[in-house]
Structures are given as structure tokens and as C-alpha cells.
Fold each of these.
Amino acid sequence: EAAVLVLVAALWGGTGPFLRTGAAGLEDVQRQGRLQQLLAEISFLGLNYKYMVPFLLNQCGSLLFYLTLASAELSLAVPLCNSLALIVTLVTGRILGEDIGGKRAVAGMLLTLLGVTLCVAGSTKAQ
């Protein structure tokens, strides 16, 4: 279970920055009318492999998470996946050259990770 949850976190966290870069240019899609605008945006994203490949990988992570929840402890699975996904997103974004917010963002991430670690440690001791 733990290995699958780490894989889920890697899929979720690793695909986020790629989804942002793959969606670049979406704001330039302009059509008359709401329905035409919606269809044009769906078409732009759906035909863009730079968006669709990370999107499908992200959804595979969601499917794995759903399947794992049948046997995993919810109070451990959610914080573990979210905190690890946050770290993977930060690292992947940094590798891709994204502005991750400087020292404050890193400090916030570390504090979040510390809080999740304390919650998970307290939850496992209570069992």
C-alpha cells in the first residue's frame, strides 16, 4: 500500500507542472459565445499531447488512489499522498524553471510536511 501511495503522489505531483506548461496558450483561444468558447478550449487541450499525456498520467494516479483506499487507512493515505505530492510538485516545478515562491514557499512546505508527519505519527501510535 505504501509503495502505491508513493506512486500516486509521484503521479499527482510530477504531472502538475507539466499540466501548467501544456495548457500554455489556452488564454489565447477566443470564440464568440460561451458554447463555442468551451468547445474551442476543450479542443485545444484535448488535441494537445503536451497537456493530454500529463493529464492521463494524473488520472491514472487518481484511479490508483481510489483503488488503494479500499484497503488503506484513510487518515494516513490522504496526508501522505498530499504531502509527498507537494514535494514532488515543488521539485518538478523547480526543474522546469518555475518560480516556486522562494524561501517562504519552501518554509511553508516544510511546515506543512512537519504537521502531516506529526499527525501521521500520532495516528499510528493511537492504533
Amino acid sequence: MNIGSKNKKRVVLPSRPNPPTVDQILEDISRAAPSDPVFSILEQTGQRSSQPSDSDVDLRFQQCRRYLELSERLQEARDQLLRQREELRVAGEQLDRDVAEVKGQPL
């Protein structure tokens, strides 16, 4: 048991400032010099500060389309499997009735 921790006073921190608005951020970026350390860090880490190229956008668009197509095909396959499962359940019940009927008949 640490008795000394009960005697510590809580430090009241000042409230956080409001986050900058989009306009303030854009203004800050536009005023920054190309030699600003933030831009050099982005280059060193392989991140680009410019907009993605058209080929990147096209690639992402094609990936999204393919994902949606596959998702739709999976949904259709799921629905088909549910129908087939129900058909098998009904066929199994009919088979059970037929087997019970045959067992009741003399050979």
C-alpha cells in the first residue's frame, strides 16, 4: 500500500484549444515553403504530398467495381445455397416418410 500517493495534488490542466478549421489548415499548407520539414518527412517515408495520378484513381475504381461484382455474386450464391438446402431438407423428410412406410410393410 502506497500512502504517499494519496497526498499528491491533482494538477489542473488547461482546456484543449479548438481544432483548426479546414480553411485554416489549407491556408497553413499554402503558406508552407517547399523546404518545410513536413514535406521532406513525407518524401523520406515514401508518402506523396500530391494528388493520386489518374491511373491510381482508375485502378482503385476498377478494384471497387470488381469488389461489388464479387459481392453480388456471393449474395446470389448464398441465396441459391439456401434454396438448395431447403430442397434437401424437404427431400430428406420425404425419404424418412418413405422409409417408415416401407418398414411397415411385410416382406
Amino acid sequence: MNATLLLRITIAIILLTHSIFGMFNNGINDFGNLFLNQIGFAPYGVLLAWLIKLSHVVAAVLLLLNKYVKLAGFVTILVLIMGIILVHFQEGWFVVGGGRNGMEYNFLLIIVLVAIMYPNGFKKDKIQE
């Protein structure tokens, strides 16, 4: 079993559930219209919201297939960092408990993605002689 399999499955489930439900309950359109357009992304807020959620779906599939893991990770980390900057930072650290809608969850997802992308750390691969 690959050392990152459980983490990849877990992140894929999170990315899929965070994306797919919004596709069917108008959540993505609302995020685009009621948030992104309002903070300066108009008239592209809805398109941007859909691209973000579709990137999550693609990343989840790639993580499950264990293909292009670093690319999927980098794109998702970029989205998560932008989520921290635009949404969560102003709410503080805690998602619940000591606050609401904070950045701790995104931080955890970013660190797990880094662990998936670099399961052996950041050491350069040694050339075998």
C-alpha cells in the first residue's frame, strides 16, 4: 500500500464533497455572485467560482489515481491560500469553538497536501551509482 493512500483518499473525499454539493444547491453560483463579484471579481465571479470547484474535482480524481499529484497539490494549495486571504483570515484561526469560519481547516489541508506531494520530505533524490 502506498504511504499516502489514506491521506489521498481523505483529501479527495473532502474536495469532492466541498465541490459537488455546491454544484446542485446553487452554492457555487451564490459564492460567485454574492461574494466574489462583491469583492472585486465582477463580472467573472461565477466563472471563477466554477473553475475553483472544478479544480477541486479534478484534483480529487488525480489524487485517487495517484497521477500528477504535485500539480493537483499546487493548484489546490493556491486555491486554499487564496481562500485564507480572501475569506478566512479576517475571521481568525478557529473554524469553530474559539471563533467561526477561521483558517485552521485550510491550514491543515495545505499541510496534508504538502505531505502527500513530498512523502519523503524535501530532500533531493540521490542518484544511485
